[in-house]
Amino acid sequence: MDNIQLGEFIKSIDKNLEVKEGKQYVEVTLPATKLHSVAAQLRERDETKFDYLFCLTGVDYGHDMGVIYHLRSTILGHAIVLKVRTSDRENPQFDSVSDIWITADFHEREAFDLLGIRFANHPDLRRLFLDSSWGYPLRKDYVDDINIVTK
Amino acid sequence: MEEEVKNITADEQQEYVINMGPQHPSTHGVLRLVVSLKGETVKSVQPHIGYIHRGIEKMCESITYPQIIHLTDRMDYLSAHINNEAVCLNVEKALEIDIPDRIKVIRTIMAELTRIQSHQLWWASFGMDLGGLTCFFYGLRDREKIMDIFEETCGGRMIVSYNCPGGLMHDIHPNFQKRVKEFIKYFRKILPEYDQLLTGNVIFHERSKGIGRLSLKDAIAYGVTGPSGRASGFSCDVRKQEPYSAYDRIEFKEILYNDGDTYHRYLARISEMWESMNIIEQLIDNIPEGPYAVKMKPVIKLPEGEYYQRVETARGELGVFIISDGNKNPYRVKFRSPNFVNLSVLNEISRGFKIADLVAIGGSLDLVIPDIDR
């Protein structure tokens, strides 16, 4: 499937999905509540078969916190980007996809460690690089008086 | 009262936990593995990382694109050139700059030399992990020749920083082609010696065949790429899937094996060295004339948007994901590091094997720790 057909197909899965034709990949923005069910469908459906999660990025958008998933199908060769956002900065939480793609386990721990994004139903959500007393350094409002020199 | 006497040996009863690292020589850096053992059998391996976490992604948010290049060297220091290339390609793609052929060809040759020297060092240390100290001397002796070529052209030996957005820092040294051809001629003769020393060795076979088997399904589920993934039959070579630089104009094979054990991960890397030499030979006499860099604006600002670039480093798929808000600094940079993802499979493939096999399995994944921690 090329990107246009893929975009059309994604729209047919659920009406609430916002599909945008990006420069490189089809970009799908979806509500956080739908994330797990849509991800599971993308993994299982014969038309999509996204079996390889090759990148998972946590992003601090200022007001919102978000996660971006890059998926690829090793069988069909197409790729897609999923985006979720939440406005809850205090306790941002999404469903874990580590039961769908095992590799998400480590990626989600990294996002939790550096951005404080929690993943519900993650098997082992611990800090990965940093001590539990650290803040969340990739957040835009992170302050470190000692180690960050501001001009 | 009859007391029930349980006939349990110490082996069955006790599961004890030992720390391997962060200063263990076979972890090749500061990786700490917390290993649960029953007797000598590994029950689980929990990697504890972060000992060399420098916050490169955070640092990238406050510096400009040409400066980021120099940080990427410090991630996977054995694939320094390919890391640089990934950032440059991403910036060039975002700015829609056409890169002259000369730059593409030189980048490809340098990337393949990087791949060979990385595999040489891996072969050297992998042999040493398994008790063959000779490998270490052989591997480093030959790697030195590539280091010298890098030194002449790039100035640096390991941390080359030879790429910059829009091309190369400076032109190749006049001796470059001659030196590379000499090296290929030399290494074609030497590489069979590697096979004599290790590949055909009975002790090596005993320690690697059937050890740490990774199935194709698991390789995809865990996202294990590079030679480690291809040894399990996972066709994941970015050079084939999304050709960048000059990879679309040359003939080369994607090395695939199906067994996915330590021995085949070893064979995959040895075969890749042969294949890299083939690639260099196709290009070294055909470096087109032209400028070595495109003139760029003094301040590089990427248009607002998201850019993703994948490249094939010596260890697997490196992804550079840049979110730009139109400023001279990126809004967010994510490095999808191949080692970080390959490490996550260690627990899965080493369970049930002996503690000594863990060293062999860890070595065959070819982990570079600064790339994991970033």
Brief rundown of the structure:
The complex is a heterodimer of chains A (151) and B (374). With 151 residues, chain A is an alpha/beta fold.
SSE topology string of chain B: HEEEHHHHHEEHHHHHHEEEHHHH
Share of helical residues of chain B: 40-55%
Provide the structure class of chain A.
Answer: alpha/beta
Oligomeric state as shown:
heterodimer
Order of helices and strands of chain A: HEEHEEEEHE
How would you portray this structure in words?
The complex is a heterodimer of chains A (151) and B (374). Chain A is α/β, with parallel strands linked by helices. Chain A has three helices and seven strands, in the order αββαββββαβ. Chain A has a five-stranded mixed sheet. The model of chain A has no long low-confidence stretch (mean pLDDT 84). Chain B has helices at 10-13, 56-60, 65-72, 80-95, 101-129, 133-154, 176-199, 202-208, 216-222, 226-230, 238-241, 262-284, 338-343, 346-350, 355-365, 369-373, and strands at 16-20, 32-38, 41-48, 163-164, 167-168, 305-313, 316-324, 332-336. Chain B is of the alpha+beta class and 374 residues long. The longest helix of chain B has 29 residues, at 101-129. Chain B is globular, with a radius of gyration of 22 Å. Chain B is 48% helix and 13% strand. Chain B has 16 helices and eight strands. The chains are: A alpha/beta (151), B alpha+beta (374). Chains A and B meet through β3 and α3 of A and α9, β6, β7, β8 and α13 of B.
